[in-house]
Amino acid sequence: MKDDTQPDWSEVKNIMNPFERIASRYHGLPDVDLTQGKSIAYSRSTTTRIMELIDANSQGNVHGGAIMRMVDEAAAIVAIKHSQRPFVVTARVDRFDFLAPAFIGDVVSVHCEMHYVGRTSMEVGVEVTAEDLITREVRKIASSNVIYVALDESRKPTSVPPLVPANTTEAETIERARKRRVRRQKLDEEARLEAKEGQ
Ligand SMILES: CC(C)(COP(=O)(O)OP(=O)(O)OC[C@H]1O[C@@H](n2cnc3c(N)ncnc32)[C@H](O)[C@@H]1OP(=O)(O)O)[C@@H](O)C(=O)NCCC(=O)NCCS
User: Fold this and answer.
1) In angstroms, how far is CA 50 from the centroid of its own chain?
2) Is residue 101 lining ligand 1, measured as CB closer than 6 Å?
3) Whose CA is closest to atom 29 on ligand 1?
């Protein structure tokens, strides 16, 4: 006989399992209107965090890997906002330039915006700054371009809304990124041919 004073443990186990919770939260996603373009401003996002001991490298500065992780997490927010898809994967870090060190106690801010949207892929431009909270000096410490691909529920690449410029500045940004994509594809093709010839 069912004891009503006891919880249903199978149910409790499911609630406590984070993977079950994620899967059930995103089960049956709403359709995305692919005719509805989004501007760069629509998904622009900044993530900020104070650097702590856990972020240090052996020299006592901020570890480059800590910055890279912040960049990947922050840029993914932009890709998720634009695509309206919870599942986006990092396909490529097109470039990552470390320009100056960051120090423990600095506030690191990762400024991200969408620069180009293909059918399923999205290039997010990233600028990273570090602020000394006492002197209020803000330094640009890194920049990057990260490419994400949106996935559907069966983990296949899925179409995302187009990126529609809201003004001439946005149009110029998108055009520069489009040229980068063409150059990248050309280099990829050359690398493929070289690898084939080397076989
Ligand atoms: C990214 C991934 C989904 C692409 O899958 P795929 O079968 O190659 O997909 P497709 O060939 O259909 O390409 C889909 C899009 O991704 C782009 N793409 C794929 N690989 C890419 C790369 N290395 N660099 C840039 N763009 C890439 C394609 O150009 C295409 O863009 P478009 O739709 O805008 O024209 C797949 O390679 C993957 O799952 N990689 C692992 C991702 C991962 O685990 N990341 C780390 C943790 S999040």
Assistant:
1) 20
2) no
3) 121
